[in-house]
Write a structure and sequence with these properties.
The chain is an alpha/beta fold. It has helices spanning 16-30, 53-61, 91-100, 135-157, and strands at 5-10, 36-41, 85-88, 112-114.
Length: 167
């Protein structure tokens, strides 16, 4: 992989995490920051499927191109060094990732994070799942991802492992 790598995770990998992947890819492209970005789900409900059509439409209207297909997180995704950051959209998915990584909640691997930890208290503690709601839920999720992804990129850009002087 060229540059750091990030994996965004939600439940089914058709709404929140593929949207985060697309937003982050766009943020990194505009910053000219080499980054590998992927997404996955903790469940196998939508393996192989395209993103939810409502999320796709909302993202496309903002010029954000979603191109991933649903996949389930594999244990190898959580191995040290595979991804610099694995970012869960909510606590339930973070807990699932911690269990999969073989850790207890009070000793999470340092690369597992909750998306909202980079946001201030004007945002909810979790990225809400818009799947069962109306169009405004998809817009809100995109707003939240658009606020948080630049902050995640800043974390990667200033990480101790970053020894590049060219950024």
């Amino acid at each position: 992989m060229a540059g750091p790598a990030v994996l965004f995770v939600c439940m089914g990998n058709i709404c929140r995490s593929p949207a985060a992947e697309a937003v982050m890819r766009d943020v990194a492209r505009r910053a000219d920051f080499p980054l590998t970005v992927e997404s996955a789900g903790t469940h196998d409900y939508h393996v192989g499927e395209k993103p939810d059509s409502r999320m796709h439409a909302a993202a496309t209207a903002r010029g954000i191109h979603m191109r991933s297909r649903g996949r389930q997180v594999a244990s190898g995704d959580l191995a040290p060094g595979r991804y610099d950051l694995v970012v869960a959209m909510d606590h339930a998915n973070l807990d699932a990732l911690q269990r999969m990584a073989g850790r207890v909640a009070n000793e999470p691997p340092s690369h597992l994070h909750l998306f909202s930890e980079v946001l201030d208290d004007r945002w909810p503690a979790e990225v809400p799942d818009p799947y069962y709601g109306g169009d405004e839920g998809f817009e809100f999720v995109l707003d939240m991802l658009s606020a948080g992804c630049p902050r995640w990129l800043e974390r990667l850009d200033h990480s101790p492992a970053d020894d590049s002087a060219t950024r």
